[in-house]
Design a protein that fits this description.
Strand order of the largest sheet of chain A: 1-4-5-6-3
Number of domains of chain A: 1
Strand content of chain A: 35-45%
Largest sheet of chain A: 5 strands, antiparallel
CATH class of chain A: Alpha Beta
Distance between the termini of chain A: 6 Å
Mean pLDDT of chain A: 93
Largest interface: A-B, 25 and 25 residues
CATH topology of chain A: Thiol Ester Dehydrase, Chain A
Oligomer: homotetramer
Number of strands of chain A: 7
Chain lengths: 136, 136, 136, 136
């Protein structure tokens, strides 16, 4: 259950007319962190999908939005994968507004299920992924 | 607890390289339905916020992604508000892929809390909103 | 050179912290109008691409942003295709803020070139597209 | 006319069902580079606007899309400001796919005009901005 930390700045395009990050963008940012974590483990999501006949859609998400974020603010995003079954894993993501003081801006959980791209049947997680999830 | 139905087509900009709607976009689409429901009840979210010194951030979301959606597909979105306290309400949103047969594509729940825009203290929901939520 | 009109409301997710539509979103909106115009002519962009081994990337865009647009405002978008060569066409798009009085919000031009999806060589426009572009 | 270089990875949320970055996202990416360039010069766009009663909308954009970009690819973005009048400046932006070999993916030009936020009259560029634009 290795935690990966991703750093990012809030962009104008993340915000809406209320002056802060649009709620759905927190999930996009969490997904960026996930992609970076995979990349840091030698897994390129794009190639991975096209090469293996598997897709790993997100089947569920939960998010608590704790604090507004503004354009220009620096955040860091911690993402931790946890295997939840032979075909699935959960990502626990926390978005922090960088301080001092550091403040928790959002907590997000997403569920990912591995299926075949053709008939969408559940299949075991590929070893590249379990390698990442089980690493210390 | 009036249900509002919003119709929409899936756009290319909703999709990602997996060929289907990016998961966070389901939440954006749910928010569009919410805005349209407010508008149909004479409430313009943009003006409402700037005129009243209140903001109604989303504090929590849950979503189940049940079915992939592709560019060009027609969807309808049912949104039902339920008051959950003096300062808050929940929106229950269902995204349907229009058929035949009609198929449930996602179920989304968001929690909205009414606060002052300056010191972010909880305040009672404005009457325009309770008027909408309580309507039959 | 048929002009297609697309109606739409500005959503919160189109805006940024300046309170108005983010400039790049005008181009997304223009693309939505293009997709709707194709759909109205029986062409589903998604299937079209996957069925034919052709892709029609946008190679160039120009946009004049004339007027800010706010969440909740109603717009209409006029899109007119003009064939610019055997392999390409231009879309002239005008975004109007619906009145009264109606006001021009943006003028956008995009260039589209038809190529094979494998080796990215220019090929003649498919008849479905020339049928749309040449229609009166 | 200082050139600022911004590094970034292409995210899934940048792409569309054609498998590559959606054309309008190139402009969003160019804007991110602009924001980072301002930030590196001590200018926080968000505060800058709210503190000064000025806004600097983009009035025009031109973009040539030269090469598709895929999720996971590394890019760098060079942005160079050029003052074009007492109230305006142009940003010349080039997006490179990092190599080897490095390849030009897009060339973008945007025009920015400084106006008052209330009556939208042209005003001289603030000294913070001319300080950035004139720096060597």
């Amino acid at each position: 259950m290795p935690t990966f930390r991703y750093n990012r700045t809030i962009h104008f395009s993340d915000t809406d007319a209320a002056g802060v990050v649009f709620f759905a963008r927190y999930l996009s940012i969490a997904h960026e962190a996930y992609e970076e974590a995979l990349g840091a483990n030698g897994i390129l999501l794009a190639e991975f999908f096209s090469d293996n006949g598997v897709v790993i859609p997100i089947t569920r998400s939960e998010a608590s939005y704790l604090r507004p974020l503004h354009a220009g603010e620096k955040i860091c995003v911690d993402v931790t994968p946890v295997q939840s079954g032979p075909h699935s894993y959960t990502l626990d993501t926390t978005i922090w507004k960088i301080g001092p003081p550091e403040k928790k801006a959002a907590v997000i959980q997403t569920e990912h299920v591995c299926i075949t791209s053709t008939d969408r049947k559940k299949i075991d997680l590929p070893s590249e992924l379990t390698g990442w999830i089980d690493a210390d």
